[in-house]
Design goal:
The chain is of the alpha+beta class and 107 residues long. The protein has one domain: 2-Layer Sandwich (Nucleotidyltransferase, domain 5), CATH 3.30.420.100. It contains 3 helices and 4 strands; from the N terminus they run αβββαβα. Pfam families: Ribosomal_L18p (PF00861).
């Protein structure tokens, strides 16, 4: 097993229980070598409602989380489930989730 396969296995294990709906959508994240992506999905309709991208450093991620939370509130939603996509909950993932919580999104 290599790093990518291990992450895919963790991701599938997480996705068995984490499910987004129209009332409580799923916030998912992805990290590439250069960028950090976040999106909002409704798994019942199988549609991505919104997505954002920024450079992969903590200052940019905090700015993006504020914008993401603002647009989330404009859609008149309060609750969400957080899908960390197999990544460990530390560093950039934790920064993004904590910033969303501080801007009023209930995860």
């Amino acid at each position: 097993m290599n790093k990518i396969n291990n992450r895919q296995k963790r991701k599938l294990h997480i996705r068995k229980t984490v499910r987004g709906t129209a009332v409580k959508p799923r916030i998912f994240v992805f990290k590439s070598n250069k960028y950090f992506y976040a999106g909002l999905a409704d798994d019942d309709k199988q549609v991505v409602i919104m997505s954002k991208m920024c450079k992969k450093n903590s200052d940019e991620i905090k700015k993006m989380a504020k914008i993401f939370a603002g647009e989330y509130k404009k859609k008149k939603l309060e609750l969400a489930v957080f899908d960390r996509s197999g990544y460990r909950y530390h560093g950039l993932i934790a920064t993004f989730a904590d910033e969303l919580r501080s801007n009023g999104v209930k995860i």
